[in-house]
Amino acid sequence: MPNLPKKFNDCLREKGLRLTTQRAVIARLALSRASHFTADDLLLWAREKDKGISRATVYRTLSLLTDLELLEGLDFGDGHLCYEPAEGRNHHDHLVCRQCGSITEFHCEAIEELQCEVANKLDFKVEHHSLKIYGICKDCSRRTEDDERR
Q1: Which of 55, 66, 75, 90 gives 20 to 30 Å between its CA and that of 41?
Q2: How far is the C-alpha of 83 from the C-alpha of 23, rounded, in Å?
Q3: What pTM was estimated for this model as a whole?
Q4: Maximum pairwise Cα distance, the chain
């Protein structure tokens, strides 16, 4: 697992908070993930390391990590935030399946260029963007077609 970023430790100090073992476990787990996860996922993983970790500690630590832009919280429209590490990753967008909830990351330079072109045309300075495309994934589409054939 990665060492905790200096800005996380600095933030705790500034807020008068201690770097507890539980906070460290939660932060390390969250920052080491390669795919999207929910607060509930993180709580399960954290409790494997320390049974005493509370839901509130997970949520407070997630809030600190997102405020520091070490994690990105993403709303895919299902009422729960998903998280992913924000640092050390290339920009990407998301395809979200409305049936199974799968999330596929992708990068398309043509889309990036078009977004810049539109922003420039409207004299708009882009600071950050997130593109989410909702639909039905290939697997769910096949299952639906198979069901219709029966």
Answers
A1: 90
A2: 17
A3: 0.70
A4: 63
